[in-house]
Specification:
Rossmann fold, Phenylalanyl-tRNA Synthetase, Chain B, domain 3, 3 domains, six-stranded mixed β-sheet, five-stranded antiparallel β-sheet, 13 helices, 21 strands, about 40% helix
Length: about 450
């Protein structure tokens, strides 16, 4: 493609994404793509005179990174007439985060900081192109994804624009050669220990050579179709969230029973939106568990259904959050008490005729007033037959294969006078100091929950 043709195509794209009133922070690594983006912005400046601020971020994790920083600074000043803002940062990955992911997070944080300094209308421009889009879609397919993942990258996502997203990297390479602008190579792009690089150098060439020479265009088109389809789903999501008026700053959020009649795709997108708002990384399994109303998400977020059929999203990062769904309560001598998730304690007075699996039987004379509360970390119980030997309730859960997402709300039967004293674990066992003797009056408690693992 001729220089003028490419610049005209670029200008057309830029006009759609970037108003003239929007200064641009441009991420410049020194590689082919970012150097092509910056060169194009400079060469169309007389027709689209936005303010351009190049920023180079040195992560300090490659031996040659300092040389790259000097190359970018010198080349951009001498050939393009712009001063480069240099930022040198240290990378500290979060738990479960790769160094590559951490570097990306920190890099965008630096770019966002400079964008804010330029004012509310400013944008960040990055140099992702069509092959990057194809790699992104393939990577998400390999890892497992839904329609959200098939969207790949967007040409405009919040304050970030990608003017080259529909451009072939070959066009950009030719453009740099024709305009005689050099670039530097990042040796880490050749390291096939990274999944994206394996897709770039192994999978994508295989698909191109053996299956479809236009695979990049096909995957980029798939991303566009997925974006169009997802827009319809997300429209329903926003309408529902507006209707129910969720308050995102609260530690307990309620999705009403009407959530259950929504299409599965909309339900999934609502929970994706919740996760994004709470700054959580969740996978497809997390989403499906949430739709079922039994989820244990990262960051201490728990999702369950209450006895009204509502989905309750609760963040356990604040004191007492675990007790909001069903507070500790005195048990009646007879009757039923509703608890979460979707369960009941059925209480009856009876003459003890022997232990029954799954029933908690507590000596009425010794313990006339009982209370139910949720399990607390550190709770211990003295199982029947193990006089003098206590066991962590968490270990009892493991022994009985109680799923993690159910433990948070599991009912403990305790003394009303001493709520720290566990007399029974509903549905599982009675404590030794609550033992009933044959013929004595006992309080018998049955845990009714269709999701019990036993």
């Amino acid at each position: 493609m001729e220089v003028s043709q490419l610049e005209d195509l670029f200008l057309e794209r830029l006009e759609r994404l970037c108003p003239l009133s929007s200064p641009l922070v441009v991420g410049v690594s020194g590689g082919k793509d970012s150097m092509a983006l910056l060169t194009l912005l400079v060469n169309v400046h007389n027709r689209w005179p936005v303010r351009v601020v190049p920023v180079h971020v040195d992560h300090g994790i490659r031996p040659r990174s300092f040389e790259d920083a000097l190359f970018v600074e010198r080349t951009v000043r001498e050939l393009l007439g712009l001063d480069v803002v240099q930022e040198h940062i240290q990378i500290t990955p979060h738990r479960g985060e790769s160094m590559e992911m951490a570097a990306r997070r920190e890099r965008y944080a630096v770019l966002e900081e400079h964008r804010r300094r330029l004012g509310p209308h400013s944008l960040i421009a990055v140099a992702h192109h069509r092959r990057d889009q194809a790699e992104t879609v393939l990577m998400r397919v390999v890892n497992g994804t839904a329609i959200q993942g098939l969207q790949g990258m967007r040409a405009k996502n919040g304050n970030i624009i990608r003017p080259l997203l529909n451009f072939s990297p070959d066009w950009l390479y030719q453009y740099l050669q024709q305009t005689q602008v050099p670039w530097c190579e990042d040796e880490s792009n050749l390291d096939t220990r990274f999944l994206r690089n394996r897709i770039r150098w192994e999978l994508l060439p295989l698909l191109t050579d053996r299956f479809n020479p236009q695979i990049e265009e096909a995957l980029a088109a798939l991303a566009e179709r997925a974006q169009e389809s997802y827009a319809l789903v997300h429209e329903e999501t926003l309408a529902f969230l507006t209707q129910v008026r969720i308050h995102w700053d609260q530690d307990v959020m309620i999705l009403p029973e009407e959530f259950g009649v929504l299409k599965t795709a909309v339900q999934a997108d609502i929970f994706e939106t919740v996760a994004e708002t709470l700054h959580l990384r969740v996978n497809r399994s997390h989403i499906l568990q949430a739709i079922k109303g039994q989820a244990n998400w990262p960051g201490g977020v728990r999702i369950s259904r209450d006895n009204k059929g509502q989905w309750v999203i609760i963040r356990h990062s604040f004191p007492g959050a675990r007790h909001l769904l069903w507070p500790e309560q005195i048990l009646p001598e007879q009757g039923a008490v509703d608890i979460l998730p979707q369960g009941q304690l059925v209480i009856a007075l009876t003459h003890f005729a022997g232990a029954v699996k799954g029933l908690v039987a507590i000596d009425k004379r010794r313990w006339p007033r009982l209370m139910a509360r949720v399990w607390r970390y550190g709770d211990r119980i003295e199982p029947l037959g193990m006089k003098g030997h206590h066991k962590k309730v968490s270990d009892v859960f493991i022994d009985n294969k109680v799923p993690r997402h159910m433990r948070q709300f599991w009912p403990m039967i305790v003394s009303a006078e001493d709520p720290d004293l566990v007399l029974g674990i509903a549905g599982i066992m009675t404590a030794e100091n609550a033992r009933c003797h044959m013929g004595a009056i006992c309080t018998q408690i049955r845990y009714v929950n269709e999701d019990l693992p036993f």
